[in-house]
Write a structure and sequence with these properties.
21% helix; 2 helices; alpha+beta; 112 residues
Length: 112
């Protein structure tokens, strides 16, 4: 009745497992209420935020392997803060995209 269509591979090389892992980590962050906030010029860094209770979690995910990804949990009072007047972080994470996302996802939501 219907002919099954097959699509040729988009590339002859297998996908880079690090890129696949990074993409899966970003999908997991979005599933845990993180919102995409924008990107740096050249898209070397992607920014994500999550608001909950008295806190805001901010992630900067580095797509450039020479940069380090990071995340902060900050008290939300006074958000958005004036430039240079951010509160001290309650929690901090840094490392690769995968490391940062999965560490942040272990942080309790609604509490420090």
């Amino acid at each position: 009745m219907y002919e099954r269509l097959t699509m040729p591979p988009l590339t002859a090389q297998p996908p880079d497992p690090r890129i696949r892992d990074d993409a899966e980590a970003i999908v997991a962050a979005k599933a845990h209420r993180f919102s995409y906030s924008g990107a740096s010029p050249g898209e070397q860094e992607l920014f994500f935020t999550r608001f909950h209770g008295h806190y805001v979690d901010i992630m900067t995910l580095a797509t450039d392997r020479l940069l380090v990804s990071g995340a902060l949990r900050l008290e939300r009072d006074g958000f958005p803060w004036p430039d240079g007047e951010w509160p001290d972080p309650v929690r901090v994470a840094d490392g690769s995209i995968v490391d940062v996302v999965y560490e942040v996802l272990t942080w309790p939501v609604g509490t420090a």
